[in-house]
Specification:
By secondary structure, the chain is an alpha+beta fold. It has seven helices and six strands; from the N terminus they run E-E-H-H-H-E-H-E-H-E-H-E-H. It has one domain (38-176): NADH Oxidase. The strands form two sheets. A four-stranded antiparallel beta sheet has the order 3-4-6-5, sandwiched between helices. The protein has a two-stranded antiparallel ribbon with strand order 1-2. The structure holds flavin mononucleotide.
C-alpha cells in the first residue's frame, strides 16, 4: 500500500477485501529478488485492477535522471494490438500475455542541459528502471513476468502510434506453474575489486 505523509491511502484506490494486501506490503524485497524467475506461460486469467495499480505505483517510485521521469508506460488492452506486438517482438508468442506493458523513453521530459545523446541515454535508463521496478512489484503480488528486449523499435512505434522509442515490453500474468529461480553467477566472479 502506498500512502502519503499524512498516511492517506494513495494506492490502491480500490478497496481491497483480501487480507493479502498487508502481507504484500510487508514483503521482504530480498525474498522477491531471490525467488523471481522469468515465466513465458501464463494462465488465462485476468490480473486484478488493484494489482495493476500497485505495479504502476511501483514504476512511479523508480529513480529517474533529475527526477524528470523520462518515460511513459503503454498499457495494452487491445487484443489486436497485442497480436501486432507479437510480430514486432520477433514473433515471440508469449508477448500476447494477460498484461502487456510497453515502456517507452520520453527524452522531452528530461529538462537537463546536456547533449541530446546523454538525454536519450537518461530516458532509456529511466524507462528500464521503471520496468524493473514494475517487474519486482509484480512478483511481490504473486504474478510472474517475462521481459522482452528483442523488439523492432520502429514496428512498435507504428503499432502504438507514437514517436516515443520503446525500451522494453513487460508481459505479466499468473504463472501456469511457479518455476524455481535460475542459478546465477557466484559473487566472486561478478564483483571486480580494483
Ligand atoms: C535486456 C533483456 C532482454 C530480454 N529479452 C528477452 C526476449 O526478447 N525474449 C525472452 O523470452 N526473454 C527475454 N529476456 C528474459 C531473459 O531471457 C531472462 O531474464 C534470463 O534468461 C534470466 O532468467 P531469469 O529472469 O529467470 O533470471 C530478456 C531479459 C533482459 C534483461
Amino acid at each position: 500500500m502506498f500512502t502519503d505523509k499524512n498516511t492517506q491511502l494513495l494506492y490502491p484506490k480500490e478497496e481491497i477485501k483480501s487480507h493479502d494486501i498487508e502481507d504484500i506490503v510487508q514483503t521482504n524485497i530480498f525474498n522477491i529478488m531471490l525467488n523471481r524467475r522469468s515465466q513465458r506461460k501464463f494462465e488465462n486469467k485476468d490480473v486484478e485492477e488493484w494489482k495493476l495499480e500497485m505495479i504502476f505505483a511501483a514504476a512511479d517510485t523508480a529513480p529517474t535522471a533529475g527526477g524528470f521521469q523520462g518515460f511513459e508506460i503503454y498499457h495494452i488492452k487491445s487484443e489486436q494490438i497485442k497480436k501486432k506486438l507479437v510480430e514486432a517482438a520477433n514473433n515471440q508468442p508469449y508477448v500476447n500475455a494477460p498484461v502487456v506493458l510497453v515502456f517507452c523513453m520520453n527524452p522531452q521530459r528530461v529538462k537537463l542541459n546536456f547533449p541530446p545523446e546523454i538525454i536519450r541515454k537518461f530516458s532509456q535508463q529511466d524507462a528500464t528502471l521503471a520496468a524493473a521496478y514494475s517487474q519486482l512489484a509484480a512478483h511481490a503480488l504473486g504474478l510472474s513476468s517475462i521481459w522482452i528486449g528483442m523488439i523492432d523499435e520502429n514496428k512498435i512505434m507504428e503499432v502504438l502510434g507514437t514517436d516515443l522509442s520503446p525500451s522494453s515490453i513487460l508481459c505479466l500474468g499468473y504463472p501456469v506453474k511457479m518455476l524455481v529461480p535460475k542459478a546465477k553467477r557466484i559473487l566472486k566472479d561478478l564483483i571486480h575489486e580494483i
